[in-house]
Amino acid sequence: MKEYLAHSARDGRLSQSYKDHVNNVRKAAKWNAENAARFSKLAGSLLIHVVDTAACIHDLGKLLDDNQEVLHGTDNRGTLPINHVDAGVACLRKCEGDSFFSQTAVYSHHRGLPDFPEEENREDDFFRDNDPKVRHMVNAKIDSLTRIHCQLIPDAEPHPQEADLRGDGGVFFRMMLSCLADADHSDTARHYGKYPAEEKVPDLRAEERLHQLDAYIQSFSQTNERNRLRADMYQACRKADVSSDIVACDSPVGSGKTTAVMAHLLAQAIRRGSRRIFVILPFTNIIRQSVEIYRKTLVLPGENEEEVVAELHYRADFEDVDVRALTAQWRAPIIVTTAVAFFETLASNRPAALRRLHELPGSLFFMDEAHAALPMKMLPLAWRWMQVLADEWSCYWVLASGSLVRFWELKAEDWKKKSRDVLQLLSEDMRKRLMGFEKARISFCYEPKPLNRKELVERIISEPGPRLLIMNTVQSAAVLATDLQKYYGEFATNKVMHLSTALNAEDRDKIVADVKTRLDNNADNDWTLVATSCVEAGVDFSFKTGFREMASLLSLLQAAGRVNRGGSDNDARIWSFVMQDDSLLKINPGVKTAAQILKKYFDRGIEIHPDLSTEFMQKELDLTADDMKTLLQAEADCRFPLVREKFRVIDDDTVLVVADRHLKADISKGVYDWRALQRKAVSIRRYYVQKYELQPLADGLYDWNRGYDEFLGIMRGIINDDIMKEGVLLY
User: Does the global pTM surpass 0.70?
Assistant: First the structure.
């Protein structure tokens, strides 16, 4: 029999047969579906059946003669001339019984989940190729293609016969595509040597890790009231007996949430038979501190800490086969990631992003600063997904914060999946004891006059240090850090530090460590850290004075947690201010509405305190109601591309750039390490690719060949460019 290929020979690798690829994908996809289905309360058997059916037939169109000529190398066009997905859909259409879900999976396994209303408008041509000539040709050959397929793989004849879906359609479709896309991408990358032949993933081993965490906590002295309170908090969380699948945990800064909630989740994992734990931190957070604590306390002897506690700063999703290995998967037993990376994955319709989604069923989630993790217009849809994962896929959520807003109780039309009581993890008495340390910790001050950069610098210098300045954008932070350096001139050494996502994760970690060291030295107080919102949560900093460019009330309260954290100062202050228009400063449109609401509070003389949070969020929700409703309706109608487009925390499309020459050299040699990429790459707006004519290292990954240093990161190259045109503040 003629040899039929699924992948051509390239890069020193032999071709892969159609039979081998289909069998490999079918086996892996079914494995993915079966593991997810174990935790499905409504649609497990349907998921397994649909994924297996789609995997059998997903590449049927590659058997077409014109496609085989390219795969065998007799046609040098490179890409397949005929859409190979169309034949799989056509084959399923001819089968007896309903095959809608299987057709969706086959149709979407390269291009992504479609807009269902748009497909329905195509009537009989839905899920088929747009070109009628292609459809006609495939229809004429479908019987012969199916016959060849069944001869090559006798046990892979499609038998759809699908049942009706029970439960949420949006999450099910994404879960279905995840199982298939991950199997397909992994087998292709593995064949070309871009992915390990075998991947050993550690188990959660919840009981052993909880025992080790207990020993770590017991080693701490409880000689003062604060440490005793932290110990009580740990035991209260660890022993909490809850039956609901979503709970809240109010706990102020410094109360030991990081380990206490983890102990609770490990105890729940033992009871529920869960398979992994996610720690979701605010989307601009620096996550290294939590990662270090968990690696120190949870990794068992003989384990690789990076395999047990995965550190994912952002989504890094690549469709191209050459760089698929750079896509970080959710396979570790404990995953620490950001809210933007997590929820933008849930919102996606693209296979490269969704391929990790099937790892979610049966997971436990610790979502810190839950009410402030996403823009208000996105929170209702995120809440819907949380409930679906809890109610239909056996997931468990702890929504934690220092001043948690009960966002699920906010008043808005049509945004709640259903009425739900979210129970508190801690008793009322425990919460009152914890909050007792928050009173009179800090004063909220306001500068009503818009400041220019020189005035802001002089105001900062006039306040006692160490000082923290938080700006709304990466570029504004870099400009102010440069201005402060200019102010000090030759005496600038150690007077100014800078921290933002313009620096790669490796350099940010060094700065965080240096900041902590300096804050521990009471004699070292005349200096300023200029940062973005990345320091507002999850970082154990305690400054004397804070300055926060006007944003949301929630951001201000979080920033205040980085000032006088221990409550030892009697006159600690944080200043809110607005900037005058300046060509070098960038405006963050995402905080405009929230900043206007907060400014009105200050202008009216309203005292700032955490109890305003719910009222503040209600006002913001009212002002963003149209955007919120658009997202919710798009999800309900399965308009997947629109959900992906609208559910974007950063409005502009972003790409990754690499400045590190060693990593660039590895990538140029075809050596891909997703962990190195997480540590050394920087995310930038795609706009800069064209502006600076950045050259691609691989599909979706670019060479940052401009300035980069450990002070400003990639903003060194951007600021230098703008300074030449505009000039920086001079003294």
Answer: yes
- Identify which of 32, 94, 31, 19 has the alpha carbon closest to the alpha carbon of residue 59: 19
Q: Which residue has the higher pLDDT, 494 or 493?
A: 494
pLDDT in tens, 308-350: 998 886 555 445 555 444 556 788 899 998 888 899 899 999 9
CATH superfamily membership of 443-628: P-loop containing nucleotide triphosphate hydrolases (3.40.50.300)
Helical H segments across 498-639, by residue range:
505-519, 553-560, 592-603, 613-623, 625-636
| Those residues with Cβ within 8 angstroms of residue 14's Cβ, 6 or more apart along the chain or in another chain | none
**pLDDT by residue (tens digit) across 190-224?**
888 776 666 788 999 999 999 999 999 988 766 67
The four Cα atoms 146, 150, 152, 156 give a dihedral, to 10 degrees, of 110
| Interval 474-493 mean pLDDT | 88
The 3-state secondary structure of 28-81, one letter per residue: HHHHHHHHHHCCCCCCHHHHHHHHHHHHHHCCHHHHCHHHHHHHCCCCCCCCCC
Answer yes or no: are the C-beta atoms of 701 and 658 closer than 8 Å: yes
In residues, how long is the chain?
Answer: 731
Q: Report the DSSP beta bridge partners of residue 309.
A: 334
CA-to-CA separations, 632 to 313, 412, 482, 627, 637, in angstroms, rounded: 27, 12, 43, 9, 9
Q: 713: which residues sit within 8 A by CB, 6+ positions away?
A: 500, 502, 503, 504, 507, 682
Query: Residue 261 above 70 pLDDT?
Result: yes
The full DSSP string for 139-161 is HHHHHHHHHHHHHH-GGG-----
CB crowding 699-727: b at 16 or more within 10 Å, else e: ebbbbbebbbeebbbbbbbbbeebeeeee
pLDDT of residue 71: 93
How big is the chain by its Cα radius of gyration, in Å? 27
Taking only the tens place, the pLDDT of each residue in 503-561 is 998 899 899 999 999 999 989 999 999 999 888 876 778 899 999 999 988 888 888 88
Question: Which residues partner with 709 through β-bridges?
Answer: 713
Q: How do strand 701-703 and strand 695-698 relate by DSSP bridges?
A: antiparallel
Q: What one-letter code names the amino acid at 709?
A: D
Give CA–CA dist 385/217, Å, rounded.
34
Is the four-CA dihedral 416, 420, 426, 430 of positive or negative sign? positive
Would 206-435 and 443-628 be classified into the same CATH topology?
yes
pLDDT at 285 over 60: no
* Buried b / exposed e along 279-309 (16+ C-beta atoms within 10 A): bbbbbbbbbbbbbbbbbebbbeeeeebebbb
Over the range 211-231, which residues count as b (16 or more CB within 10 Å of their CB) and which as e?
A: ebbbeebeeeeeeeeeeebbb
Which pLDDT does position 414 carry in this prediction? 56
Closest C-alpha among 597, 591, 494 to residue 533: 591
Is residue 389 within 8 Å of 417, Cβ to Cβ? no
Task: Answer yes or no: are the C-beta atoms of 350 and 644 closer than 8 Å.
Answer: yes
Domain residues of the chain, as ranges? 5-191, 206-435, 443-628, 654-726
CATH class of 206-435: alpha beta
Q: Is the four-CA dihedral 348, 353, 358, 361 of positive or negative sign?
A: negative
Helices 257-272, 225-239: axis angle to 10 degrees equals: 20
The whole-number pLDDT of residue 324 equals 46
pLDDT of 530: 97
Q: How many Å apart are CA 329 and CA 628, to the nearest integer?
A: 29
Nearest CA-CA partner of 56 in 156, 128, 155, 179: 156
